[in-house]
Amino acid sequence: MKTLPDYLVAIVVSLILTSSAAATIYKVVDDKGNITYTDAPAAEVAADEVLLPAINPIPSSTPAPAAERPLVPVDEEQVVAFPGYSFAALVSPSDDSLVHFDQPNVLAQLALIPELNADHLVQFYVDGSAAGNPVAKTSLSISGLERGSHRISARVLSSQGAVLVITPSVTVHVQRHYKRN
User: Between 154 and 26, where is the model more confident?
Assistant: First the structure.
């Protein structure tokens, strides 16, 4: 019987540790040479205590809910005071999300309170550049994103082209296969 590779053993041991951080881990070798890691070895089997290195905690980055993200205008001189919108934020994609290799499009959705006025347009941006022309709707399917990280944002424009609202940008990480020549 084959023994498990060291990296697989490390994964199993780390999973055991996360379930019970203070538990002692033992390495048990049976008469056939099979290795087992456990936190409760059988009394009749010889077991060696395993001293594991400390686990490096990695803090997760949880984005603030869309309702808590403030409106951040890029250039306050461009923004015209418009009392009609009390809230504007991108609700899709979520900030710091991953776009898998088999997902060709990213749907950007803007939440506005109240709804988009009939004479207003929404301009979506990818990495600071306009993604197509302004549209009279609050969603846009963005295609052709290269692999890597991209920032998506939106602006609501009046019929005269004045900027009424600018949303904070969200970051998406696009995962694509690398094609070698």
Answer: 154
End-to-end CA distance of the chain: give it in Å, rounded. 41
What pLDDT, on a 0 to 100 scale, did the predictor assign at position 107?
A: 92
Instruction: Name the DSSP letter for residue 21.
Output: T
Closest alpha carbon to 37 in 115, 45, 29:
29
What pLDDT digit, counting tens, does each position of 53-86 carry? 777 776 666 655 555 545 444 455 555 545 678 8
Q: 92-111 b/e with 16+ CB inside 10 Å = b?
A: ebebeeebeeeeeebebebe
What's the pTM value of the predicted model, to 2 decimals? Answer: 0.54
The CATH architecture of the domain made up of 66-174 is: Sandwich (2.60)
pLDDT in tens, 38-53: 888 777 777 888 887 7
3-state class (DSSP) for residue 17 = helix
How far is it, in rounded angstroms, from Cα 46 to Cα 39? 13
Segments making up each domain of the chain, as ranges: 6-50, 66-174
